[in-house]
Specification:
Length: 494
């Protein structure tokens, strides 16, 4: 298998993606009702067989992706042009082959899309989406079937998403009548648009040594992106795409428009706000002096804030989204280091672990903010590429957040890919991506064997990083503005 060419990887991964999709028809996150005979629950035997098929397909997809990355990295190391099928156009063709089987599959690895549809219906029906959960939808309301399929603790949870995303969800519900199958497919079209936006921005930012092909490999060909953004239709892809597009425009001198896009990203999910700090660094370094520093410190936030306020007023949903950003943090996820540590300490120190857990979670966020401040300072001093600094900041924010889901890693991974995919950071993020795809089952549950498979994948990946380590990123100096017409296929070195 490991002697496969780039073309062989393409078809191996396409077969894996097809197996994931077929398995998902039997073991995916199927709706409780409203499947229209297409997405219907099956018996235990068929469900188990589908889950096994999906896991086997996922393993083929991860193996093909890993081999593809090894080929790209070796081309960079040896200073040779990309092998046939391994250049930028080859990566895009492979992306199409790997994404296509997932397009008509039921929701995979998460039930979040049912929340999206329900919340869009709540907006149309005039409910306070920031004061109540999908359970307020009655049996005859649009989106009621989707609401019945929302995961247990999310049924009564207010939306943690911003108004721009809820407007998109409401538009999908209006166009589809809120019927589960067409509404989910409509949300998947939004995810495909997000994929295209991420790919465009990553290509524009260049990817550092090794260029666009490797950057696309780590950002969007990534199985974690495919199964959770395309298969699971998570809105993290849209947030990431808007952030990357804004950063790209800022590096090309169009920072006002870039900040406006980040403002829109902020009204999808709030972590997008971190990008404003590094756009500000870019503006301050470009203009120089006290005036440049003041401009970079104040104006990006002002532009993004104005856009976010305008989107909120246009949506008519109110500013409740500013207070619901922490609702997800009330749910314990095993991937959150601060939550696990806080829970353990709380159980050791008393009968009620919640107070101690809350303190440790806040300390984790403070540590993340400190790391982000250091990275921004290094970027301002010219010791770190601001785009790479943003990517590393998002990774730190995820690692130290009170709630962590596998797909959150994509926030920082896509940005690091755009700045320095062929670096030690990029290699470690590739390993983590390959491991985290196993943590969640196609049904959206997190079984014990998912963690075992993720651990095994991580061990194998870390062994590879020791055997074939990628170089440390070259972080100093100004960031060049990539030319859209520059050829990505020539040998590159730094």
């Amino acid at each position: 298998m490991w002697s496969f060419s780039a073309s062989g990887c393409r078809w191996l991964g396409a077969g894996g993606s097809l197996a994931v999709a077929v398995g998902g028809w039997f073991a995916g996150t199927l709706p409780v009702r409203g499947g229209r005979g297409l997405w219907e629950p099956h018996g235990p035997a068929a469900t188990s067989a589908g889950a096994v098929l999906a896991y086997l397909g996922l393993t083929l997809l991860v193996a093909a992706w890993g081999r593809y990355g090894v080929l790209l990295a070796r081309d960079v190391r040896d200073g040779t042009p990309p092998a046939p099928g391994a250049g930028r156009d080859g990566v895009l063709a492979t992306l199409a082959c790997w994404a296509a089987p997932l397009l008509l599959a039921p929701p995979l690895y998460s039930a979040d899309v049912y929340s999206y549809v329900s919340q869009g219906a709540m907006v149309l029906e005039g409910h306070d989406v920031y004061g109540a959960g999908p359970s307020v939808l009655g049996p005859g309301d649009p989106g009621a079937d989707a609401a019945a399929s929302v995961g247990g603790h999310w049924t009564d949870t207010p939306a943690p998403y911003g108004p721009a995303f809820l407007l998109l969800a409401a538009a999908v519900v209006k166009l589809t009548g809120g019927a589960v199958v067409p509404a989910v497919l409509g949300m998947r079209l939004v995810s495909l648009g997000a994929l295209a936006l991420v790919a465009w921005a990553v290509r524009g930012l260049g990817g550092g040594p090794g260029g666009r092909a490797g950057a696309l490999w780590l950002a969007v060909l990534n199985p974690l992106f495919l199964i959770h953004v395309v298969g699971g239709t998570h809105n993290d892809g849209l947030m990431t795409g808007l952030v990357l597009a804004g950063v790209l425009l800022a590096t090309r001198g169009r920072w006002i428009l870039g900040c406006a896009l980040v403002g829109l990203a902020l009204t999808v999910k709030s972590p997008a706000a971190v990008a404003l700090l590094f756009i500000g660094v870019t503006v301050a370094r470009r203009d120089g002096g006290v005036r440049g520093a003041a401009k970079g410190l104040v104006l990006p936030g002002a532009v993004a804030g104005a856009v976010a306020a305008g989107a909120t007023l246009l949506a008519g949903t109110g500013f409740g989204w500013l207070r619901t950003q922490s609702v997800a943090g009330t749910i314990h996820t095993a991937l959150s280091v601060s939550s696990d540590l806080g829970l353990g300490l709380g159980l050791l120190l008393g009968d009620d672990p919640d107070p101690v857990k809350g303190v440790v979670q806040k300390l984790g966020l403070l540590a993340a903010l400190a790391i982000i401040a250091v990275l921004a300072w290094r970027s301002w001093r010219g010791l770190l590429d601001p785009v790479l600094g943003l990517g590393l900041s998002l990774v730190a924010l995820v690692a130290l957040s009170p709630m962590v889901q596998p797909w959150y890693l994509l926030w920082g991974t896509a940005v690091v890919a755009a700045a320095a995919w062929h670096s030690r950071a990029g290699q470690v993020l590739a390993v983590l991506s390959a491991a985290l795809v196993y943590e969640t089952a196609p049904s959206g549950r997190t079984p014990w064997y998912g963690f075992a498979l993720a651990g095994a994948a991580a061990v194998l990946g870390l062994a590879w990083t020791r055997r074939e380590p990628w170089p440390a990123a070259v972080t100093g100096g100004p960031r060049p503005s990539p030319s859209p017409s520059a050829s990505p296929e020539r040998p590159r070195s730094r």
